[in-house]
């Protein structure tokens, strides 16, 4: 735990300085001026006095215990300072100096030694190369930040010291204030996982806001973030993305995963509200800190102009939320309270004659209606507009059940009202689009928080069969698995595979076709050929033995012509699958977060639109269904636009089986079923083609 970091009873600063411009001076200023009630011990070989406090030449000269030791000396003096802290039996050490692993090989060596000193001495290390730590509840500012933030509801976690300072500044500007702020720097010991675990149950924190450039341990991060998100919103801006795992160029799943997809999947799983810009980070945090979470996606828009009605409605629908038509009951109540010129629908245009009391009445009526989940108030300055009075009227009619956020358009005419909004605790935005972005994030967090309990189903499978195939392949270093063997593995995990056999002669191909029944498909099997169709290596719907023989000969002729050096394993004769909808399911293994499952429709949807979705394994039934729903093409699965409805439950089961397979066997680096033919309800999906790649055996040392 991090009690000695966040709630120390005493603090020492090694490197305290009386020279303005030095980190040791500003850190000492903050410690003293923040009003920390416990002992503050400045340490400097020169001794003397600083800010009215006795300066000790060495930490050992101070006779009493010290919980937290700050180190503000150059990198080459840090190891000695850390040893002083260990001898003093301090609980936590904060190293603000740079010049460690971020500076090159020599700095990395020093950092490794620093870690070892702290680990052996039982001291938790924050940094190095960090800003420090702040806890406003106990008036602790153990940092060299330019300012001490006001107390408030946001806990700030940042890998960047500069951005940590900027975030505290914005929190104050928006009247949110800060509960705790911590800059983790190089994360030599204390990481984002430790901070999330500490803040999850912190009573002073309502929302956690973070900036991260990388994540130290993917699995631990997801668990810590999930625990924190269960208690309060966690809003993260993730920068500096990494390549997501080992990918094969022939595999749609690997190609489409992209370098940032793993983080998106991890954040989704953990319930993190992900911001894609510094602006969005505080847009979301402000709304989540100040307003209740909406119960659904139905938004009522209240405004005083037709133009802002249109802008707001467009923004809501583009965000995938609902501009719900008013019920007759609600419309009648509003007509009684609003001007005769008002347009009573959703959006509600109160008109240019809107007075503060009209906004207040509309909010009161709407907030009490069970068909309204959130309210967006948009105000544009007009001749009769009273911004400041309108703000006071809105704030006076807020409640704890229905979130209300505001978008006040304009410049100097509206600016004083923005300050009143911030002071009153009502989130406000310069445009309806930004306001709706915050509402959407609030809604998604509410959906995640109210999700069903996670229950991962385990299917009966033939695990030993898969172990034998993988072991044999790894021992012979044949790591890329083609269609035939991939289907063997999938059959062992409960997938339906059409009957078929491999052959090297047209005569045998005819016999196989007669045995399994027409129509059949022929496919060339070759480790040298990735895209079989491009070279004429696939023939479909062959209805007679003669067609099979002719197709066999023609296929071999074309392959020999277009790929004369290809290694040919034979031709696979397979029973044609029933007609249905083609989907793709797959997995690519991220080095940090593990197996990422993919789902998408086949054809143009994956090739051109790249309409796919990802989720971390293991996956629950509910999460599998949500994957399907999150694609733009979901309505086709439901049987719209002239397409018959397919068995959605069967796809969800297939996703869960792939999840089980890839969590059971971490040797599988990537896997793809392309296509999986899905029929109507009651028809089991059929694997038409598949491939996978295994990791090599680890080298023996």
List the total number of helices. Answer: 24
Shape: flat
User: Main sheet: which strands, in order across?
Assistant: 9-8-11-10-12-13-14
Radius of gyration, Cα only, in angstroms?
Answer: 31 Å
Main CATH class of the largest domain: Alpha Beta
Number of strands: 30
| The CATH homologous superfamily of the largest domain | Succinyl-CoA synthetase domains
Say what the CATH topology of the largest domain is. Answer: Rossmann fold
Low-confidence stretches: 242-255
- What is the percentage of strand-forming residues? 15-25%
Work out the helicity level. Answer: 25-40%
Give me the CATH architecture of the largest domain, please: 3-Layer(aba) Sandwich
Mean pLDDT across every amino acid position: 90
Counting helices, strands and paired strands, the structural category is alpha/beta
Our measurement of the CA-to-CA distance between the termini, rounded to an integer number of angstroms, reads: 37 Å
Number of domains: 5
Largest sheet descriptor: 7 strands, mixed
Provide a quick synopsis of the model:
Strand 1, helix 2 (23-33) and strand 2 (40-43) form a beta-alpha-beta unit.
Topology:
Elements: H1 3-6, E1 11-14, H2 23-33, E2 40-43, E3 49-50, E4 53-54, E5 68-71, H3 78-87, E6 92-95, H4 105-121, E7 124-126, E8 132-135, E9 140-143, E10 151-158, H5 161-173, E11 178-183, H6 192-199, E12 207-212, H7 218-231, E13 234-238, H8 252-257, H9 261-270, E14 273-275, H10 278-290, E15 299-303, H11 306-318, H12 328-337, E16 348-349, H13 356-367, E17 374-379, H14 387-396, E18 404-408, H15 415-424, E19 428-429, H16 432-449, H17 463-475, E20 480-481, H18 483-492, E21 500-503, H19 506-516, E22 520-525, E23 538-542, H20 545-562, E24 570-575, E25 581-590, E26 594-601, H21 604-607, E27 612-616, H22 621-629, H23 634-637, H24 648-664, E28 668-678, E29 686-687, E30 690-694
Parallel strand pairs: 1-2, 1-5, 5-6, 6-7, 10-11, 10-12, 12-13, 13-14, 15-16, 15-17, 17-18, 18-19
Antiparallel strand pairs: 3-4, 8-9, 8-11, 20-30, 21-24, 22-23, 22-24, 25-26, 25-28, 26-27, 28-29, 28-30
